[in-house]
């Protein structure tokens, strides 16, 4: 079985800060990490590899330094790594990104494609399904469990707001995985040592058969018009009182609003 | 000259830090409180290859280096000094001892199991009457056919009772003093070998520290580590390496106490300001962080020299001396900054202060380290 | 593509087990506002099976027209079935704007459709507006809510967006509203159906949905433990509220995920949100700042939660909440 996992290097948004003047991210000092849902997806792939034998390829699109998430994937147990990097991919929205990734998929063998549900820097959850559509593959998003049933068949558990669904899927297919379903393994020390001795394949638009008009900024139907820090509403009154008085203030204000 | 960690060392640091935060930190207080050996975590560390970082791949190790190993001990000790010393004693005192002194047969037999964490390793030198002065060994090994018969007692042995393999220093010829010492590899299942009293300690309470008892314990000659009468050299060399591990442990404790103190000083408010806004806080912590960073460079330089095959004995002594004293100073100050809370078990700094003390004592007291350093100074 | 061929603000009217989802009504509320600005109509796409009757409900909530797609293939949501139906409908009706709820269904269907139609999609919008050039302005949080971005899709149609449940306000229900109900029969290519639903399990049945609560008493790190939450529950019982939680307490295993408010939890907008011992990380604020009235109690007077609170109380929740509960219970009993 050939499994391809899409991973993304993201800034750890739990520690991101915004430059209040330029309205841009302050990236300095913010660690770059493998996107958590993608890491869950890689874990699923590695579990399938252990259970039924598979070749696991990881692929990422990003700047040259995104190489590091592929090394991390090696250290977790991935077999092959491809870095899609080129100025031609810059400024891509989800559709253009999905076009580039779909192009790469067409150039490698796959039986199953796994992505994370969404990346923590964008939170869109769109790239996986959009890529699946380009490749005319069925998809299941929000996957928290997957059982290989032999042949091209999988039984997956999909999380929903109010429970879950069990779905039977005939592959090849695209699954988008939740980190909560697959607690990722730690990197292995020997894997870490070897990760930097192995080859990460560098691919550009030359390696994929996708029309240039569908890539990067040109291939992106959505454009960011402006970015701004979140407007919070004006603060109300803050009281520093003894508990008894504080309770009275709360009750008074609740009465004013007819809440009691 | 390059002061940066390599890419793989950095990636390893990321991995072990995550492991420490997620797996080790949550149980650190419990491990201390209940004197509980963290068996589960040690197994997990073994599976990940952390129990055999510098051991070559052909012996089942990770094929990493000693710098990585110090990173492991530092990051683990940052949240739990017990876990740090378990890895340190296992790696430096047993695995490295066999790797550096063992026959090919011994390496093939013991290293894969030690490196995978399937077996835990320990080292026995100290005796009731032979601490700093190792030449006063009273554990005797007497030749008998293809075996040696061991009799005697070792004390304060880290990982004792949990370990499967022990490197043991014995006296094979009392008349020769240091030259009469020989080391053996003793398996825990050997008849005549038993575990004695378990110590109740001030700190690193989850690490097992016990007496080893040898009563007509028959060990095959094939298990002699190094040459007959070469045990003192084996022990000293092994301790040199061990000191790098303990220095890393002390460094981790110090950094852990600093992390806690910084966090607390940001949150804790007195006189309408957070503690971190007082210049007294800032200056004291700046001085301490400088020492911690200096200790880190000493630790890594000693490990790097070991990896390069360069002499590192004095470097290891300096690293351990300085890191241990920094850990003691840092943790004492950490408790002080935490005030009354620091003296309670609600905060981890009191544990760190108790843990720090041992780093000034074991694997050569600070006084012994000074002897080693001075010895080198006056050698010429 | 001629942009003038595309008209109308269309809403994907999501149903589950025949029940129209609240988010669909919220989208209709917003679509009404947008359509009135454009001088165009609001249309609901309503795929389902044997559910034609409910179409009237969509009219009552603001639709000028409902396009009903009634087929057994559409009884339960499945990606390919719905994608085929919806893409064919979009090809036929040529909407200028298509809005979907950012639910597990909308977030599965939206990108699939956008990709099939070769157009843009903006996820999880928190604000929608029309520009002077009559383009859709889609505003969404980025980078974990640290930054807001306004996004446009000027060269492609339809302009598509998903919107999180609880963010937009419903209009007013009017049973007397008039609207057209029209049937559309998609042609299915069953050879592409590779996913079969084996079982759909509802786990939270009977449990409370915090997004529906009128009053939420929410606890964070300052509440600390189950005993602390018991105090909040006692207050909630007295004033008829639900208890919710910050992420910290969910991560700590004290509260279940379904009562988590915030970026990775639920967006709520109750009449009263009482934040107890919640410092107010930006991810939390993202989930509750649209509440009508916010009372915050926190020990730290510099806690960011006070920046969005209408009433801020600097103090210890463990003291204030029991006192408040006692006083309110006496008042309410007196009545």
Task: Explain what you see.
The complex is a heterotrimer of chains A (260), B (380) and C (335). By secondary structure, chain A is α/β, with parallel strands linked by helices. Helices cover 27% and strands 30% of the residues of chain A. In chain A, helix 2 packs across helix 5 and helix 3 packs across helix 4. The longest helix of chain A has 17 residues. The two termini of chain B are 28 Å apart. In chain B, helix 3 runs antiparallel to helix 4, helix 3 packs across helix 6 and helix 6 packs parallel to helix 8. Chain B is globular and about 80 Å long. Chain C has 335 residues and is of the alpha/beta class. In chain C, strand 2 and strand 3 form a beta hairpin. The mean pLDDT of chain C is 92. At the A-C interface, strand 3, helix 3, helix 4, strand 9 and strand 10 of A face helix 3, helix 4, strand 7, strand 9 and strand 10 of C. Strand 11 of chain A pairs antiparallel with strand 13 of chain C, so a sheet runs across the interface.
**Chain pair forming the biggest interface:** A-C, 82 and 84 residues
Total of helices of chain C: 8
Query: What is the helix/strand order of chain B?
Result: HHHHHEEEEEEEEHEEHHHH
Structural class estimated from helices and strands of chain C? alpha/beta
Q: Which residues of chain B sit in consecutive blocks of at least 5 with pLDDT less than 50?
A: none
Number of helices of chain B: 10
Radius of gyration of chain B: 21 Å
Number of strands of chain B: 10
**Portion in beta strands of chain C:** 25-35%
Mean pLDDT of chain B: 96
Main beta sheet of chain B: 4 strands, mixed
Helical coverage of chain B, percent range: 40-55%
- Report the structural category of chain B: alpha+beta
Estimate percent helicity of chain C. Answer: 25-40%
Strand content of chain B: 15-25%
Strand order of the largest sheet of chain C: 7-11-6-1-4-5-12
Q: What's the number of extended β-strand segments of chain C?
A: 18
Distance between the termini of chain B: 28 Å
Secondary-structure map:
The complex is a heterotrimer of chains A (260), B (380) and C (335).
Chain A: E1 2-6, E2 9-11, E3 17-18, E4 25-26, E5 32-34, H1 36-52, E6 55-61, H2 67-76, E7 80-84, H3 94-106, E8 112-116, H4 127-134, E9 139-148, E10 153-160, E11 163-170, E12 173-177, H5 189-195, E13 200-203, E14 223-228, E15 237-240, H6 243-256
Parallel strand pairs in A: 1-6, 1-8, 6-7, 7-13, 8-12, 9-12
Antiparallel strand pairs in A: 2-5, 3-4, 9-10, 10-11
Helix pairs in contact in A: 2-5, 3-4
Chain B: H1 7-33, H2 39-48, H3 66-79, H4 81-101, H5 104-115, E1 121-124, E2 140-144, E3 147-158, E4 165-171, E5 181-187, E6 193-198, E7 209-220, E8 224-225, H6 231-267, E9 269-270, E10 273-274, H7 279-308, H8 313-342, H9 349-359, H10 366-377
Parallel strand pairs in B: 1-4
Antiparallel strand pairs in B: 2-3, 3-7, 4-5, 5-8, 6-7, 9-10
Helix pairs in contact in B: 1-3, 3-4, 3-6, 3-7, 4-5, 4-6, 6-7, 6-8, 6-9, 7-8, 8-9, 8-10
Chain C: E1 9-12, E2 15-16, E3 19-20, H1 22-38, E4 42-48, H2 55-60, E5 65-70, H3 79-93, E6 97-101, H4 106-117, E7 121-125, E8 127-130, E9 136-142, E10 147-152, E11 159-163, E12 180-183, E13 195-202, E14 215-219, H5 226-239, E15 242-245, H6 247-251, E16 272-276, H7 282-288, E17 294-298, E18 311-314, H8 317-334
Parallel strand pairs in C: 1-4, 1-6, 4-5, 5-12, 6-11, 7-11, 14-15, 14-16, 16-17, 17-18
Antiparallel strand pairs in C: 2-3, 8-9, 9-10
Helix pairs in contact in C: 3-4, 5-8
